[in-house]
UniProtKB/TrEMBL annotation:
It comes from Candidatus Anaerostipes excrementavium. Keywords: DNA-binding, Transcription, Transcription regulation. GO terms for cellular component: protein-DNA complex. InterPro entries: LysR_HTH_N (IPR000847), LysR_subst-bd (IPR005119), WH-like_DNA-bd_sf (IPR036388), WH_DNA-bd_sf (IPR036390). This is LysR family transcriptional regulator. The keyword Cell inner membrane does not apply.
Amino acid sequence: MTLQQLRYVVCAAECRSMNQAAAKLFISQPSLSATVKDLEEELDMEIFLRSNRGITLTAEGEDFLGYARQILQQYQLMEEKFIEKKRPKQKFSVSMQHYTFAVQAFIEMAKDFGMDDYEFAVHETKTHEVIENVRNQKSEIGILYLNDFNRPVMEKIFQENAVEFTELFTCGIYVFLAKGNPLATKEKIQLEDLKDYPCLSFEQGEENSFYFAEEVFSTYDYKQIIKTDDRATILNLMVGLNGYTLCSGIICNDLNGNGYAAVPLDTDEKMKIGYIKKKGMPLSRLGERYICELKKFETNIL
């Protein structure tokens, strides 16, 4: 196995086409295909499935790609430091469901380490993409939740994708809504109280599943529901339509402003907020600090 073979595989996976990858690498398509085929034979596994429409990664190929990217990134860092005499920027990326507190923790970590020597990335995205980004090492850490309903399925998915879940804290279920909503002054809200207000839910795309929903009670038959991709849009809908969403109750007024409230939902249901990482891989220094910042929010649980 050579670095050149790893570069060819990564380029082919990104282009999803041998022809496009060959053009990008300035080599012939037969030469690229032969090199990749030699690597597959050496590894005794298929990295790509080939068809008239192009190429797609196999499950083993996805796993291999994550390690290949890591090796190439480490080689680039060594090359820049010892050959080009550059001081490379350390990279850190996190993927998350739509949690303001997870963004706030990232901000605090970035402030502490500074922006000059590090290259940061934040992906606030769909549940399956959080898992996928950690699996292929696009992100070191993924933030999501488990509860009694989704845990069996999610743990199976974690195992299939070679990622492991660590719990950070347990939260009750809260109704997050604008302070102008008539329900915002209640001490506790019943599900029946919500029937005349639109439930705001994050769209999960093609991988839509009750188990991937960011909100608990995903199988509940809501009278009104609006799906969106964006956290800022949800905040606007809370104000404009008296909408609501179900959440952990951890409030970040510094980012969301003071116009919103979290009222306990009358239920015994709990959410376990935690993080996933690649199985068997230790956290980086930045990853450890990010987790420390997240744990501070346990004191903010209502």
